[in-house]
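task queued by scheduler; priority normal; single chain, no ligands, no partner chains; default sampling; output format set to structure tokens
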Amino acid sequence: MRYEEARTFLLNKLENELPPELTYHNIHHTREVISGCEELAEMENISGEDLVILKTAALFHDSGFLTAYEGHEEVSCRLAATYLPDFDYSQKQIREICQLIQATSVPQQPQNKMAEILCDSDLYYLGTHEYKEKAENLYQEMLLAGFVKSRQEWTHKQIHFLEEHKYFTLSAIDRLSTIQHQNLLVVKTEIQTEHSVTGHKSFYLSDGILIIVGVITAAFALKGFLVPNNFFDGGVTGISLLIHEIYHFNLAYVIVIANLPFIIMGLFTINKHFAWKTLICIVLLGICQLYIPYPVMTSDKLLVSIFGGFFLGTGIGLTMRAGCAIDGIEVLALYTCRRTSFTISEINLALNVLIFSIAAFRFGIQTALYSMLTYFTASKTIDYVIEGIEAYTGVTIISGKSELVKHRLVNELGRGITVYKGERGFLPGKFHIHSDVDIIFTVITRLELRKLKNLVSETDPQAFVFAHTIKEASGGVMKRRHIH
């Protein structure tokens, strides 16, 4: 296989013959996919002839755009079959290359490790900081091709695509998934802003109510529980409480000033709309502390820890549902995450360890421990306020009676399902025994989890079932609604 010669030949052809309106599927995209394949292949231990075949598939995967937009994968395969024999590729190698190219057709369905690498490389941009630029190029291309009619339609398509897309290789998951999720949040925030600008007054009203109630509740937690008892919390609120206790500055001013740097970070990390709403939220919190005479509710340390954290978490959770934040620690974590290899959770943990260590050194270990209980209560309350009582649970079912399980889930439980194609078996001592299986995935409320498990157990007692919490879910068959 003379890959380098084939590469030179095809790249020259793409550069000179691709239509100019292809602002995304151009020679730059092909080069980036080849580079992504080289990077992921090294991490996934693909080398030798397999690596050459993989890079050749990346080279040809979008060559079909030379003559067709729809069904370009088929055209790409025909071009590979036409040109590659001239560069000493065998028919077997060309068939393997074509199988890899076909796997990139959306929805992607890779059948082996090399196909997974090519699919991940083809959509590598979803998990990078260049997402916005690449997505804009793709939008302009699809607008000219007639596949989307408006910016709004495109944004909704991108949200759905980002929510549904999952990387296949562990290397891509580790490297790209976190930033893909951040990109999804940014797009959602942008469409939220777009809706508000086009005159959705009820959107403003509901957000305003959430912010006011959240700010009043958080201020009540601070003045009614934490401050009178010298308790602390995590995040910027904890830093503000520390400064207040050590230097006796007015807490209302300290919280506003301490959050200003993080509001500026939010302006660049998230968007202007978020920054303005957060600024208003923080200023209102300061005003509440200055002018509302909250009563001191109790001096019992345990009650202060639990209920101070509960009301503070309720206030923070309500403002987060409105699209802003009383505490800027998440913005700092997101800002730092983009510039380091640390995760958001690791950054939050490090900052809070520092806060509670200072509290323990200055005010005693007992105060620090009670304050950690306050932080824990507040964190759990925030999760509850944001997710609500009907927190959604994703359930994966692997069963030898998958057809019957699918039928009962849809017709008896009323759930929508997604089916992945997989293999089961590979047991110790019987590794060579395996068979194809449908892997069933569905989303239910946690109140329905026991009912689902009973249903699956009745159908197939040997079925493998596991569940995990989903932070946010929308669309699909989520819940029954009566039509009036």
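post-processing summary
- The first helix runs from residue 3 to 17.
- The two ends are 66 Å apart (CA to CA).
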